[in-house]
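DATA SHEET
Item: assembly model
Revision: 1
Owner: S.N.
Input lines:
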Amino acid sequence: MSELSRLTKMFEQNKISRRRFLSQVSALGLAAAVSPALLAGTAQASVPKKGGRFRIGITGGSTTDSMDPGTLTSNMNQNVNWQIRNNLVEIDHNFNAIPELAESWGASADAKKWTFKLRKGVEFHNGKTMTAEDVIFSINHHLSEESKSAAKGNLGSITNIKSDGKNEVVFELSGGSADFPFILGDYHLTICPAGTKGAEFEKGIGTGGYILDKWEPGVRAFSKRNPNYWKEGRAHFDEIETLSIVDTNARTNALKTGQIDYMDRVELKTVHLMKKMPGVKVHSTTGTAHYTIPMLVDQKPYGNNDVRTALKLAIDREALVKQILRGYGSVGNDHPIAPVQQYHAKDLEQRKYDPEKAKFHMKKAGMLDHVFNLHAADAAFAGAVDAAILIKEHAKKAGIKINVVREPDDGYWSNVWIKKEWCMCYWGGRAIEDMMFSVAYSEGAPWNDTHWSNKKFNEILIAARAELDKEKRRKMYYDMQEICRNDSGTVVPMFNQMVEASSDKFAHGPLSAAMALDGMRVGERWWKK
Amino acid sequence: MKNVLILILKRSGASLITVFIISLIIFIGVEALPGDVAETVLGQGATPETVEAFRKELKLDLPPHIRYGAWLNDFIHGEFGNSLANGRPVAGLIGWRFGNTLFLALSTAMIAIPLAIILGMLAALYRNTFFDKLISTTTLSFISFPEFFIAYILISILSVKMNIFPSLAVIDPEMGLSGRIYAIILPSLTLTCVVTAHMMRQTRAAIINVLASAYIEMAEIKGMKRLRIIVLHAFPNSLSPVINVIAVNMAYLIVGVVLVEVVFVYPGLGQLLVDSVAKRDLPVVQASGLVFSIVYISLNLLADILSMLSNPKLRQSQI
């Protein structure tokens, strides 16, 4: 019985996947002893049915959107992209890397050379069979000199990609990367037929469960089931209509009147009313998304760690979660690793609001008279300006003076973020610790939005990347979270939940928190009851 | 008729110059905005390297006057160019949406103009009675609310509560006419509420103005019915200011309904323009800006011609 409780515990802590949990439990012949509550998701996942139309009302769509995997900048094209295309690797709901177009993979001992075996006989929507050539083309699309892809940074360590026969692709890296398969699960890295270029991407030819029928950027996309889909037990709808509905009220009304079946970004101010609506279900998932307040540590007085610590202590996180997120979130501990992630340092002491201590540090730095400019616009996240004003009040109790500078939403990411010394910011997070730290905390990374560089941190980061021993890695990531919490220039006040709603006529398996809309794969994973 | 032809010629010449100046202003305006299309399209996810690559691809590294010259040259040759953000031809992007915008504007006009004129006549007929005040108060209240507020009220009553009309005005090119009309009823009603007051008040005022003239008094003394006097004698002579107000409102219905488009998720030209400005997508901004200004100028020209034709005095005079 102790084996069962051990497995149960691991499952509850997200250390093993549901699939592994179930298979091990049944291997032990203990299935009947498992608490039904644990398997709620499985019960819901009864038997998927084929058919029906699924209508998604989604935010973020713009008339300037494109279907080029290199420029998937809105929720809308990211979602449609995964209706119609696949990656080599899929990130499942427990943040595991599972095979998608790659059947299996393996690494050399130093994790510098990765070999991916491709699934055989997978056809693109235009009838062409997918081969190593298409995979190499699709990855190189992000790597070329003229590429404008946001995935370029993550793939920077690739020195060479080559095929070994039609169905094997070999990646050579400049440094070891134990998480390389996860990187290939990034939404940009979907596989397109070799030679696709420019406006041809807008046709959306892929290997996915749906075929793109109509695509009007910023308005709607319409896709039909791919009768030839290779993946078992996925893509159940006959057709999916994806509508760009930027206005929150319009999305809410449309769901209420049955014009759409699914909406993202529920308004937190009215979510309690939405929960009472008949026929509507509200879902909230806790993923890796979080809000940050980065300070540029190469600017005065943020270079002084006493100043940074004082500001971190002068923020009442509990109050922010309550007032800005209306409880749909959890407090952050000044590092970007989310509680759902496998190497999250849960024993690390949670930083609390402490005006006295904040005052002490600020006094030590001799900066009690300094007025700190905090730049904010709701473009950073919904409620960012309100949050900044609350922070100003929190800091006042510590005798710290903050001046909230309101910035225009328009152009916020190009004119304020990483340009102004202290500003509000939002990160969607990354499924793996290495990616999150590399992208925004490592020395010299283009998105290192604090210009922070800590020698020890950077050394561990590179060592951990190539470390294949799980326990050693865990220790390394724990250390990095601690250094980040105590020294970095970023305040991470909270992790926000993703709150979405759907019609109760639809069913689903366990929800993924990797991205919004069931890991952006709602079209593939859901079905009509 | 000669006068009218001269007017059209003169105005068309002036319009060409206006359009050219507008294109220059739009270009300078978009240039003056912080950030460029490369930065805004790539967004938070952009690295300096990728932005640079994108800029090069879009030829944004060339100096502004050369880019403007190239655009103008293409435009004169009937080339609208491609969207910088997603490479689609601008003409295709705009054509369908402009059709949608016109469809909504014309449908609204078909309800709002007769309604406003009839109400205006009735208000003039029953001047200073409770009925007159009721019409004025109601229409003026509608115009005082922001249009999205009226939209939400209509949605919550007619769509959410009573479930008669859809809250989303989603239309696509394959939809039949009846489907389209059904889809746009709520936005159309919203816009009707917004534009009616203006036209109705002008009709009322113009008619009342004419009612003070001697020939109306004569008609009254002859014992003619008030309604007949207003419809047959006063209204035709008060057309000129009414036509002008109608033209202004028509122009508003075509160029100024972004909020209604957002609330009802209607794929019109306004939303495209807003998105393109936000992304600094110059060819699209230029083209939609020019379409809008041409509409504005033409409607004003049309109003002038019509009011001239409706007024014998203007018909004869030299301009």
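QC remark: The CA atoms of residues 372 and 402 of chain A lie 5 Å apart.
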